Amino acid sequence: MGQNKLTKLLEIFQLEQIEHDIFRGVSYDLGFPALFGGQVLGQALMAASLTVAPERQAHSMHAYFLRPGDANAPIVYLVTRTRDGRSFTTRHVRAIQHGQPIFDMSASFHVHEENFEHQDPMPEGLPEPESLKNLQELYGSNAQLPDYVREQMMRERPVEMRPVNVLEKLNPEPQEPVKYVWFRAAGTVPDDPRLHQAVLAYASDFELLGTTMLPHGVSFVQKDIQAASLDHALWIHRPFRVDEWLLYRMTSSNMYNSRGLAHGQIYNRAGQLVASVAQEGLVRRLSAGKKRGR
User: Fold this and answer.
1) DSSP 54
2) Residue 229 annotated as catalytic
3) What is the pTM of this model?
């Protein structure tokens, strides 16, 4: 399940070079009604990577979502070569649609070095992914869900997700802002580290903002809740394969002034911390008649 969507996802990372350091990306329906922020993250990271020597791998990216994207229009990525140092390379990327910037990112690349090493340990005692159900199995047969929610949950997706703590969508109870999800690409990804990093950037936008809503008993599917990612930071610590199971641990440290802050740690099955994530997002309850917008 999801192999066809994964093929489409990998295709959108095959960017067209239209000028020196200028690339164009297309969009496909990957299971979301609008342009998914993770797609822009992954494409922007790939655009930056295409201007960097292959022995230098991305280790961090810091991005802002400036405007909602149009899923029916191509995206142009403008790459600026900020710095090429002895060990580090820095790139700046702007994503343009309809003549306006929708996304802005800085990314850094680093040669491999053997040196000091430590990490936060992987959480213990969690069920293995093989024992868990995916989103389609969890929500597809839930007759209490409205048709529009069930249809969204049943869409074929390029990344398979298996939640450890299953959450009520329509009427959630307030709970601690901690969430665990196993995920992997829904098929084999070619042996190109840039592709694995792009798919990880794509997947790192899943579920994260929803963690900030847990203490408040609200969710994305409630029609009076507006939520949108404002920024996103990703640090890649170690090599990994995104077509093997990865554990995403998500927490939230703060919600104030309609902005929630979430943190993520991504581990492989060997217990290695392969990436860390942070994101601030807009979360607000809309009063009657109030329009959505930033």
Assistant:
1) T
2) yes
3) 0.93
Of residues 57, 205, 226, 243, which has the active-site annotation?
A: 205
pLDDT value for 62: 98
Question: Coil, helix or strand for 250?
Answer: strand
Cα(23)–Cα(46) distance, integer angstroms? 10
Cα distance between residue 221 and residue 227, in whole Å: 10
Find the mean pLDDT for residues 137-147: 72
Catalytic residue among 229, 252, 265, 276: 229
Question: Distance between CA atoms of 218 and 204, rounded to whole angstroms?
Answer: 21
Binned at pLDDT 50, 70 and 90, residue 142 comes out as low
- Measured CA to CA, the distance from residue 294 to residue 283 in angstroms comes to 11
Whether 192 sits among the annotated catalytic residues: the reply is no
- Measured between alpha carbons, how far is 61 from 205 in angstroms, rounded to an integer? 13
Is the Cα torsion angle 67, 177, 173, 260 positive or negative in sign? negative
The answer to whether residue 87 is catalytic is no
Structure tokens at 112: 């491999």
Q: Is residue 141 predicted with pLDDT exceeding 70?
A: no
* CATH superfamily name and code, 3-111+130-285: Acyl-CoA thioesterase, double hotdog domain (2.40.160.210)
The domain limits of the chain are 3-111+130-285
From the list 26, 47, 29, 48, the residue with the least C-alpha distance to 97 is 26
E strands along the chain, which residues? 16-19, 22-25, 57-65, 75-84, 88-97, 100-110, 159-163, 178-185, 225-229, 231-236, 246-256, 259-268, 273-285
